[in-house]
């Protein structure tokens, strides 16, 4: 077996921010090349089966700028996967335990007591496994376009096609996978990725790594992740659907889901600003769960969500499956609240109460929620058709009202709140209902309403005028 030292050993010293490459030794005797950059809380990025060459990657301006951006607020740690880049080559063991051993070696070599862990694509299962084995060391877990089980993402025919193309035409395979990962519009970036991939690993080693990756399944570990977790995904990424990301977030306790626009699975391509800001906000919240943000005073818009038929759903699915549905609902709602400036006031079993200082943002948030639920349900329907099973849709009622509630003990009380809850109760699954005051507050803002007429609400003597918010495209 060639050693990393026999291949190359490079030390960067031409610029203050450039990293120095060092080596860590795994428990099975493999030399793993790694670098550190910046100061502060350590952030360890676990590599995936793809471009792994910390020397060549650093020479890519966009990638270098992305790393330097992360290193402004953290001590960034990156390393090459065994068999790739500057780590030991000629290896055949790429099992989940071996991949975790690589990560353990780097963390132990640097004596990291506590750090942020970043998993990308197939390194997602690796970081999840590490986080459950060493919960005391992982302060935060960040997952990017990741998944828990290989066969949830790829079919047997796709896997066979991958193996066949690797064997028959390595260059064509690297070009194909690079374009699929970078996005078909990123032709120049994809060509560079393909070239780097061919330089950092031999085809037979790549094939062995891909074979081992196809056996990854950490689904059973997801409920045992104790670290605060942030799940990123790009909506138009063709290889891994949004339903995979929502499923991942729903199974990890209190995980947060952030969906970004774009088709690239490469984090430093596309809207890197939104990614960096979300990571900064996530890490700045501290290692312990923070209390709910104080409810705003004065005129606020109150939003309620409620899962339609939750009791019947629990009886039909059982407690465990029903809890997965609830986690999906929670992840989607919390992502929308975060994206639109909403304050989570409290949860009520199968629903949320939230507040907004702006009626416009409240309606935009409600529409974003229903569209996310619709995307999730469409993905479940396609999966059920393929598997000949019955789909389990998440149908959510949303109601809004505006007023001046009483704020006390991080909660809201009063007539405005009660009326918002009653409005939500009148909605059907997939609907958004708003009071007349909300409609008037957003007049001229481009929202479409359908007049539902005067409706009698429980506990109120006078009927209330309600309006359905039209959120589906083409309505």
Question: What brief labels describe this structure?
Answer:
single chain, 475 residues, Alpha-Beta Plaits, 8-stranded mixed beta sheet, 7-stranded mixed beta sheet
Structural write-up:
The chain has helices spanning 4-7, 54-58, 61-71, 96-109, 123-133, 156-168, 170-182, 187-200, 203-213, 242-251, 272-284, 310-317, 319-339, 359-387, 415-426, 436-441, and strands at residues 20-25, 31-37, 42-46, 75-79, 115-120, 138-144, 229-234, 256-260, 300-307, 343-347, 352-356, 396-403, 406-408, 411-413, 432-435, 449-455, 464-469. The longest helix is centred in the last third of the chain and has 29 residues, at 359-387. The protein has two domains: 4-284, 3-Layer(aba) Sandwich (Rossmann fold), CATH 3.40.50; 300-469, Alpha-Beta Plaits, CATH 3.30.70. With 475 residues, it is α/β, with parallel strands linked by helices. An eight-stranded mixed beta sheet has the order 1-2-4-3-5-6-7-8, with helices on both faces. It starts with a helix and ends in a 6-residue tail after the last strand. Mean pLDDT is 83; it is low at 1-16 and 286-297.
Can you describe this structure in just a few lines?
With 475 residues, the chain is α/β, with parallel strands linked by helices.
The quaternary state of the protein chains shown equals single chain
What's the CATH C level of the largest domain? Alpha Beta
The CATH architecture name of the largest domain reads 3-Layer(aba) Sandwich
End-to-end gap:
64 Å
Overall geometry comes to elongated
**How many strand segments?**
17
Binned, the helix content reads 40-55%
CATH superfamily of the largest domain: Alpha/Beta hydrolase fold, catalytic domain
Major beta sheet summary: 8 strands, mixed
């Amino acid at each position: 077996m060639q050693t990393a030292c026999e291949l190359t050993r490079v030390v960067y010293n031409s610029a203050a921010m450039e990293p120095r490459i060092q080596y860590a030794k795994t428990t099975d005797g493999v030399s793993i090349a790694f670098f550190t950059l910046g100061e502060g809380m350590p952030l360890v990025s676990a590599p995936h089966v793809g471009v792994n060459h910390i020397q060549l990657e650093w020479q890519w301006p966009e990638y270098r700028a992305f790393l330097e951006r992360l290193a402004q607020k953290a001590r960034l740690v990156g390393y090459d996967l065994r068999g790739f880049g500057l780590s030991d080559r000629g290896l055949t063991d790429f099992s989940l335990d071996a991949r975790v051993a690589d990560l353990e070696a780097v963390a132990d070599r640097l004596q990291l007591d506590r750090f942020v862990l970043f998993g990308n694509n197939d390194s997602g299962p690796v970081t999840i496994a590490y986080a459950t084995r060493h919960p005391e060391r992982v302060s935060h877990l960040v997952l990017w376009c990741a998944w828990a089980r290989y066969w949830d993402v790829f079919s047997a025919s796709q896997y066979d096609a991958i193996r066949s193309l690797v064997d028959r035409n390595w260059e064509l395979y690297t070009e194909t996978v690079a374009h699929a990962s970078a996005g078909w519009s990123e032709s120049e970036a994809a060509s560079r990725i393909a070239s780097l991939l061919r330089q950092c690993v031999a085809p037979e080693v790549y094939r062995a790594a891909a074979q081992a990756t196809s056996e990854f399944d950490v689904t059973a570990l997801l409920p045992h992740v104790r670290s605060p977790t942030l799940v990123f995904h790009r909506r138009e990424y063709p290889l891994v659907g949004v339903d995979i990301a929502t499923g991942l977030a729903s199974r990890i306790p209190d995980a947060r889901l952030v969906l970004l626009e774009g088709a690239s699975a490469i984090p430093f391509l596309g809207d890197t600003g939104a990614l960096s800001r979300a990571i900064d906000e996530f890490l700045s919240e501290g290692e312990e769960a923070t209390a709910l943000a104080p409810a705003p005073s004065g005129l606020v818009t109150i939003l309620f969500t409620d899962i339609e038929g939750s009791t019947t759903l629990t009886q039909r699915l059982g407690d465990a499956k029903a809890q997965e549905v609830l986690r999906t609902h929670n992840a989607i709602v919390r992502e929308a609240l975060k994206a639109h400036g909403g304050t989570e006031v409290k949860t009520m079993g199968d629903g949320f109460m939230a507040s907004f200082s702006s009626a416009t943002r409240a309606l935009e948030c409600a529409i974003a929620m229903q569209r996310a639920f619709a995307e999730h349900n469409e993905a479940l329907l396609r999966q059920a058709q393929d598997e000949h099973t019955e789909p389990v849709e998440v149908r959510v009622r949303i109601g809004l009202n505006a007023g001046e509630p009483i704020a006390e003990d991080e909660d809201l009380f009063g007539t405005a709140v009660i009326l918002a809850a009653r409005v939500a109760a009148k909605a059907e699954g997939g609907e958004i209902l708003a009071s007349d005051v909300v409609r008037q507050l957003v007049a001229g803002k481009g929202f479409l309403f359908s007049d539902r007429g005067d409706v009698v609400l429980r506990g109120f003597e006078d009927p209330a005028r309600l309006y359905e918010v039209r959120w589906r495209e083409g309505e």
